[in-house]
Amino acid sequence: EAGVTQSPTHLIKTRGQQATLRCSPISGHTSVYWYQQALGLGLQFLLWYDEGEERNRGNFPPRFSGRQFPNYSSELNVNALELEDSALYLCASRWATLNYGYTFGSGTRLTVV
Amino acid sequence: GDSVTQMEGPVTLSEEAFLTINCTYTATGYPSLFWYVQYPGEGLQLLLKATKADDKGSNKGFEATYRKETTSFHLEKGSVQVSDSAVYFCALGTVNTGNQFYFGTGTSLTVIP
Lengths: 113, 113
Description:
Mean pLDDT of chain B: 92
Largest interface: A-B, 22 and 23 residues
Number of helices of chain B: 0
Order of helices and strands of chain A: EEEEEEEEEEE
Oligomer: heterodimer
Number of helices of chain A: 0
Distance between the termini of chain B: 41 Å
Number of strands of chain A: 11
Helix content of chain A: under 10%
Radius of gyration of chain B: 14 Å
Strand content of chain B: over 45%
Structural class of chain A: mainly beta
Order of helices and strands of chain B: EEEEEEEEEEEE
Structural class of chain B: mainly beta
Strand content of chain A: over 45%
């Protein structure tokens, strides 16, 4: 079974640009979660998508947005990049029952210069 | 609201030492509890889980028991190895939160030979 795949692995952008990060969940998983992990810090919840709809959003400005496609893959967009957006962005998916937990991708390392 | 409080790190142990990482939770419903591990440069991997009170999750020599009376889910290992060096995250999920997980802040473990 293929795991959660994220692309690109690394991304370097200039302040003010836009970044697009992609996530493909495990086949059969309909929920996708995005987390930000800044260096030395814990996981900060960004967004949750389920069945194509945004279900919940963390405490992030509107320039963080995303969407989920009909095949359940997801895209995270970060507009007007700031230096403090530099972080590891993790995507996770899960089965319908939460008892199996989340499965995480390896992440996209975004560096804003 | 639901939350997880995790022991502050970093933790440094000698090889073969006993490990305990404390985790306590607050939840309005009946959560499932999880421990995740993050090795350097990687995403999070599910280490073990417990879905109801008194359940014991175990994997790779790690154990944690779901204690409803003390609202705890402490992670233990009898003899750590250098390869256990990683960041450990405690998490809870409950249907009351729409199956969204809440993560602790993470505890960094370094095992020295």
